[in-house]
Write the C-alpha cells for this entry.
Amino acid sequence: MSWIPAEKSSGWWLLAGASSLLVSILLWMIRFLILGQPFTGMHAFRFMVLAIILSFLFSFTGWLGARWLWLLSNLGLVLGLILMAVYSRNMTGWEDLVSFLVFLEAVAAGFVIGLIIEGVFLIQRFTKK
C-alpha cells in the first residue's frame, strides 16, 4: 500500500478534495442523468455536501493512520455508487429511494469492515509488545 499517503501527510487532504469532486459528479450523474430527475440546485447541493462529508471523514481516518479503514471505506463508497446506478434504472417515485439506501448500506458496510480489520491489526500490534 505504498501508493497511499503516509500518516499525517497533506496528501490526504488532496485525496479528500479530489474524492469529493469525483463522488459529487457521480452522484449528480446518477440522480440527474440515469434517473432522469429534473436538475434542482438544492438536490445537487445536498449530494455535494454528502460527498464532501464522506470524503473528508474517510481521509481523516487515513490521516490518523487507519489506512485500511480509508481503503475499505472508499471501496464501499465505489460499490455503493455502482449499486445505486444499477438499482436506479427503471425506477420512479419511492422506488428510487431504494437505490440511495443501498448506496448508504454499502458505504456503512465498507466502513464497518474497515473498522474490524483496523481493530485486528491494532490487537496484533499490542500482542507483539
Summary: The longest helix spans residues 95-128. The mean pLDDT is 92. The chain has one domain: 11-128.
